[in-house]
């Protein structure tokens, strides 16, 4: 356990200071010398502190799955982390561009990404305002991930927003004892290409390591003009002492993607499934004249982390981390007068919407106009996390918490107007600021009551204060105090069989978009988990039943706002009831099988439909949107000869409604997709330590399927089609 904690800590270093301060810290680390280290056992034990703070193991009565670097590497050819997690239990993934590159998303147990609490080395990654995770801002981050753990349900207390579907925590690369380098290149369909360079100095003088990565990733996308141009970096410095481990990291990325978040309607899906309406330009008679070339999303995000892990005594370990994240960027769009007034029936093209007066041209009053604009976001997120771990034979206690602050600025920049007006180009409009303070403190413990029975307890106090003022949200000044208790029992029947039961309470504040609909309530969840774990040297089986009872759950309505964010609403009482089964069978030295299946029932209780005339219709119990009743995955691995591995990967996702009223006009059909993965490694006698060739044949049965959609009501349904058969191949040289 303690061994794992050090690698976890190493991966989790954060700096609260500005980038300049962090750069100074990294500079000092690289030139200072420290006392020599000889006891590698003590070093490894330090690694447990961070892991224990954010992760669970077989002694914790919760449902979870792990992926490590060796699991990720064979398919790490450019697709985002959610796509690499596609075959985990209860997981459904989405991709706007249809290829797994660019904007991608993940749902767990039917819960969308805003309820999947993501941390990097224990530091919150979810956007503080939207609660979303934007993987496009971290291209090729999988190349710097040592391992990840997906905790389904509420999960253990950790830093950041409360988890309502799952917690995903990622640990970045551990330090290397010996110097090494790595060059990876991959190419594939839709002009997809990834180029990665990594290096490590190894431990210099047994104390210090410097490691890094540079990546570029490009793709045209399956959908028309859904191109991605992505770049990222990762740099870390590690110091090791007899009882000390310090790690400083800076990483980030830039993304420029052509917008592909509109989807296509049913008619277009049948005739031209790759059509992309973003950037359409019409003449006054409604004839399509082409597309705006710069209809792009352009954003840069940089992270700094600083971790200090200390082994205080035989029983005590501590971790202190500081972090700072800077994000700035915009999406640019052409607003077509004809399109918005004649097709969408929206007022975006009106002069009044822009805060401008109508103008007169040749004696005619002009109330609307074509124009281009940039919607900017400029934000800072910084804070600290900390924990202390006391461990003896029968007791394992962790005390910890985090204090974080978010500062965001939103504004609109006008670039061009069709007709002269009283506006100067470059004017900034709708300038508004928001702040969010988030503090949490927790205490959790595992206590071995008898040889067979252990008790788990976890208490968290969390305070949130959010303040915003904009045209969309109005004035917001909300404070929340949440108490989130968790408890459970673990029973070891024998060395092969373990049983557990747990209860967890979670509370969650609304996000920025939720305030657009007016009055909104925080969500509340009671999560009950009951499970059985069976394991031998050649097989394992996990069976988990869950009941998640919600009050005021903010469910997806099926609608999206003008930047593709899902719109949600409180629904009173609702629940998710399910059974998860996953297994790993090593049949012999050459064959292994890893199946999983989730069966679930997801219901709004006495759902009330708000009608256009102001009346309300009670529809009784209805299925929750985006919640398939059946999700299944499987991996069949075959190793015919040494160093050659063949994998058949299969995924089935049952049908799901895009709405909460069980309207079949807005229903996604089930789909069954198969991928084939091959990995072969050569170990030359000189120059390179290894040469690995990887290939990935996605959807090799060429199924036409849709993994995501939007339902605006009245039959206005839009779909996000995924690519048919496509291929990625790559080579990795290690030296």
Descriptive account of the structure:
The chain has 735 residues and is mainly beta. The protein has one domain (2-335, 370-734): Maltoporin, Chain A, CATH 2.40.170. 8% of the residues lie in helices and 54% in strands. The protein is built from 8 helices and 43 strands. It has a 22-stranded antiparallel β-barrel, surrounded by 4 helices. A hairpin with a 5-residue loop joins β14 (280-282) and β15. α1 (2-11) packs across α4 (48-54). The longest helix is centred in the N-terminal third of the chain and has 13 residues, at 19-31. 47% of the residues are buried. Residues 1-45 have low confidence and may be disordered.
Task: Give a short synopsis of this structure.
With 735 residues, this protein is mainly β.
Assign the CATH class.
Answer: Mainly Beta
Which runs of at least 5 residues are low in confidence (pLDDT < 50)? Answer: 1-45
* Rg calculated over all Cα atoms: 26 Å
- Mean pLDDT, to the nearest integer, reads 89
From the 3D structure, determine the CATH topology: Maltoporin, Chain A
Discrete helix count: 8
The structural domain count equals: 1
Class from secondary-structure proportions:
mainly beta
Overall 3D form: globular
Helix content: under 10%
SSE layout:
Layout: H1 2-11, H2 19-31, H3 40-45, H4 48-54, E1 63-68, H5 69-72, H6 81-84, E2 91-95, E3 104-108, E4 116-120, E5 123-124, E6 145-152, E7 166-172, E8 180-188, E9 192-200, E10 208-219, E11 228-240, E12 244-258, E13 264-265, H7 266-271, E14 280-282, E15 288-291, E16 296-311, E17 316-335, H8 337-343, E18 359-361, E19 364-366, E20 371-391, E21 395-417, E22 428-448, E23 453-470, E24 474-492, E25 497-508, E26 523-535, E27 539-551, E28 554-560, E29 566-570, E30 573-586, E31 591-604, E32 608-610, E33 616-618, E34 622-623, E35 630-638, E36 644-653, E37 656-657, E38 667-668, E39 671-682, E40 690-698, E41 706-711, E42 717-721, E43 726-734
Parallel strand pairs: 4-7
Antiparallel strand pairs: 1-6, 2-3, 4-5, 6-7, 8-9, 8-43, 9-10, 10-11, 11-12, 12-16, 13-42, 14-15, 16-17, 17-20, 18-19, 20-21, 21-22, 22-23, 23-24, 24-25, 25-26, 26-27, 27-30, 28-29, 30-31, 31-34, 31-35, 32-33, 35-36, 36-39, 37-38, 39-40, 40-43, 41-42
């Amino acid at each position: 356990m303690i061994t794992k904690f050090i690698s976890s800590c190493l991966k989790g270093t954060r700096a609260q200071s500005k980038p300049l301060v962090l750069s100074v810290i990294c500079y000092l680390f690289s030139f200072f010398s420290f006392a020599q280290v000889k006891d590698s056992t003590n070093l490894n034990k330090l690694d447990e502190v961070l892991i224990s703070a954010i992760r669970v193991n077989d002694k914790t009565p919760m449902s979870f799955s792990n992926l490590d670097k060796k699991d990720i590497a064979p398919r790490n050819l450019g697709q985002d982390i959610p796509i690499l997690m596609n075959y985990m239990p209860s997981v459904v993934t989405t991709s706007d561009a249809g290829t797994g590159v660019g904007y991608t998303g993940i749902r767990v147990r039917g819960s969308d990404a805003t309820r999947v609490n993501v941390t990097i080395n224990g530091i919150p990654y979810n956007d503080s305002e939207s609660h979303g995770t934007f993987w496009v801002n971290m291209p090729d981050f999988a190349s710097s991930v040592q391992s990840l753990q997906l905790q389904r349900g509420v999960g253990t207390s950790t830093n950041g927003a409360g988890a309502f579907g799952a917690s995903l925590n990622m640990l970045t690369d551990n330090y290397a004892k010996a110097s090494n380098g790595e060059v990876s290149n991959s190419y594939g369909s839709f002009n997809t290409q990834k180029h990665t360079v990594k290096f490590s100095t190894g431990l210099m003088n047994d104390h210090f390591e410097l490691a890094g990565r540079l990546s570029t990733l490009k793709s045209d996308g399956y959908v028309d003009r859904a191109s991605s141009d992505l770049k990222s970096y990762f740099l870390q410095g590690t110091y090791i002492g007899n009882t000390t481990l310090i790690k400083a990291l800076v990483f980030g990325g830039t993304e420029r993607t052509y917008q592909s978040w509109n989807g296509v309607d049913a008619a277009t899906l049948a005739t031209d499934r790759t059509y992309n309406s973003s950037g359409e330009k019409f003449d006054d008679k409604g004839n399509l004249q082409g597309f705006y070339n710069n209809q792009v999303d352009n954003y840069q995000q940089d992270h700094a982390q600083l971790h200090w892990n200390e082994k205080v005594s035989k029983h005590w370990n501590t971790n202190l981390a500081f972090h700072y994240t800077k994000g700035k960027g915009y999406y640019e769009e052409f607003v077509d007068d004809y399109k918005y007034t004649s097709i969408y029936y929206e007022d975006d093209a009106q002069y009044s919407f822009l805060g401008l007066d109508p103008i007169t041209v040749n004696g005619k009053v002009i109330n609307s106009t074509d124009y281009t604009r940039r919607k900017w976001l400029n934000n800072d997120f910084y804070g600290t996390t900390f924990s202390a771990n006391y461990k003896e034979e029968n007791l394992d206690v962790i005390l910890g918490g985090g204090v974080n602050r978010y500062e965001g600025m939103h504004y609109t920049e006008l670039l061009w107007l069709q007709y002269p007006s009283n506006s100067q180009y470059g004017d900034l409009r709708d300038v508004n600021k928001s702040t969010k303070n988030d503090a949490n403190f927790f205490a959790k413990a595992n206590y071995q009551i008898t040889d067979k029975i252990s008790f788990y307890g976890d208490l968290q106090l969390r305070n949130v204060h959010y303040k915003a003022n904009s045209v969309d949200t109005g004035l917001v000044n909300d404070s929340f105090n949440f108490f989130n208790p968790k408890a459970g029992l673990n029973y070891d029947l024998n060395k092969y069989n373990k049983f557990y039961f747990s209860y967890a309470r979670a509370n969650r504040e609304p996000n920025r978009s939720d305030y657009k609909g007016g009055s909104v309530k925080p969500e509340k969840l009671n999560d009950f988990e009951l499970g059985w774990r069976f394991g031998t040297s050649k097989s394992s089986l996990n069976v988990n039943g869950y009941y998640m009872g919600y009050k005021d759950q903010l469910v997806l309505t099926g609608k999206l706002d003008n930047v593709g964010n899902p719109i949600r609403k409180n629904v009173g009482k609702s629940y998710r009831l399910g059974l998860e089964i996953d297994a790993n069978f090593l049949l012999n030295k050459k064959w292994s099988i890893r199946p999983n299946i989730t069966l679930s029932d997801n219901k709004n209780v006495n759902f009330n439909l708000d009608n256009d005339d102001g009346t309300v219709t009670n529809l009784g119990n209805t299925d929750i949107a985006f919640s398939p009743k059946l999700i299944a995955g499987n991996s069949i691995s075959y190793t015919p000869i040494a160093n050659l591995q063949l994998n058949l990967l299969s995924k089935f996702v049952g049908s799901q409604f895009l709405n909460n009223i069980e309207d079949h006009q807005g229903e996604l059909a089930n789909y069954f997709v198969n991928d084939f993965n091959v990995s072969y490694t050569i170990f030359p006698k000189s120059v390179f330590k290894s040469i690995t060739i990887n290939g990935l044949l996605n959807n090799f049965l060429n199924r036409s399927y849709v993994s995501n959609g939007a339902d605006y009501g009245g039959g206005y349904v839009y779909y996000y089609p995924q690519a048919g058969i496509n291929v990625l191949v790559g080579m990795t040289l290690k030296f």
